[in-house]
Design brief:
The protein has helices at 9-17, 28-40, 51-56, 58-66, 88-96, and strands spanning 2-7, 21-24, 44-50, 72-76. The chain is an alpha/beta fold. A 4-stranded parallel beta sheet has the order 2-1-3-4, with helices on both faces. Helix 1 (9-17) links the parallel strand 1 and strand 2 (21-24). It starts with a strand and ends with a helix.
């Protein structure tokens, strides 16, 4: 199983330094292309994506977060992010369709 990272240039470079391949994205078109590239290999088991890039393709990311079983998607904070993130309660509510 391999990791694939999608995010800003600094994040991708940092992951590349430890042997994780990936692509940088700064708009929705690049984010979709990177997402499709990650899914090309059946060896990709975990997609790491920064929250800013995930927001560019939120519908696709959420589909994999909440309905697809593979690959696992992990959102990480962007280095220059606003610090706002989706709280755990919101993620669970979206996942199960019940308000907690």
């Amino acid at each position: 199983m391999e990791y694939f990272v999608i995010g800003d240039e600094d994040t991708v470079l940092g992951f590349n330094l430890v042997g994780v391949s990936g692509l940088s994205a700064s708009n929705a078109e690049e984010a979709n292309a990177a997402w499709n590239k990650a899914l090309e290999s059946n060896k990709t088991g975990i997609i790491v994506i920064t929250d800013e890039v995930a927001d560019l393709i939120r519908q696709t990311v959420d589909r994999y977060l909440f309905s697809e079983s593979f690959p696992l998607v992990v959102e990480i904070p962007s280095p220059r992010g606003t610090g706002k993130g989706r709280d755990l309660r919101a993620l669970v509510n979206d996942a199960i369709g019940v308000s907690l």
